Amino acid sequence: MGFASDERGQSTVEYAVVLAASLAVVVGLGMLWGAVDGGVFVQHAVASASHNIQGMAGSVADVFCY
Q1: For residue 49, which of 8, 19, 31, 40 sits 20 to 30 Å off, Cα-Cα?
Q2: pLDDT tens profile 38-60
Q3: What value does the mean pLDDT of the chain take?
Q4: Helix-strand-coil percent breakdown of the chain, rounded to 5?
Q5: Considering only CA atoms, which of 61, 35, 37 is closest in space to residue 49?
Q6: Measured between alpha carbons, how far is 5 from 3 in angstroms, rounded to an integer?
Q7: What is the spatial distance between Cα 8 and Cα 29, in angstroms, rounded to a whole number?
Q8: What is the pTM of this model?
Q9: Number of helices (H) and strands (E), helices first, in the chain?
């Protein structure tokens, strides 16, 4: 008889684990959305571009960077 009372608590724990995982996914997507909206990825791509090297003309930088 005490066996059934042990199983009732398992569903509560499972719901708590699923809720925590779902909340983590939502928070992670929100942070990713904020980074995309803030232009972080675009700024990184521009900074990584070879023609963005300071003090050199774009065509000369392209030739010497590759």
Answers
A1: 31
A2: 888 888 877 776 555 555 555 66
A3: 78
A4: 85, 0, 15
A5: 61
A6: 6
A7: 33
A8: 0.56
A9: 3, 0
